């Protein structure tokens, strides 16, 4: 397996497990839309070639 493939597998594994573990430990209770946002954010952070910084774009929920 190529290095890039191993990296992708690792990232996908982390992204799959993060919301699941947070819910199991009763840290968060995420609906599907919030899970999707978390997954998107994790993928950006884990796959970025540059340092990331927090951006507050508001909330989808009022």
What do you see in this structure?
By secondary structure, this protein is mostly helical. The chain has a domain at 3-43. The chain contains 2 helices and no strands. The mean pLDDT is 82.
Task: Give the helix/strand layout.
Blueprint: H1 3-24, H2 32-47
Helix pairs in contact: 1-2
Structure, briefly:
Helices cover 61% and strands 0% of the residues. The protein contains two helices and no strands.
Pattern of helices and strands:
HH
Q: Compute the separation of the termini in Å.
A: 46 Å
Q: Which stretches are poorly predicted, pLDDT < 50 over at least 5 residues?
A: none
Number of strands: 0
Strand content range:
under 5%
Any idea what the radius of gyration is?
14 Å
Outline: flat
Described by strand count, sense and barrel closure, the largest sheet is: none
Structural class: mainly alpha
- Report the helical percentage: 55-70%
Helix segment count? Answer: 2
Average pLDDT level = 82
Task: Please describe the structure with a list of short key phrases separated by commas or semicolons.
single chain, 62 residues, mainly alpha, 2 helices, 61% helix, 0% strand
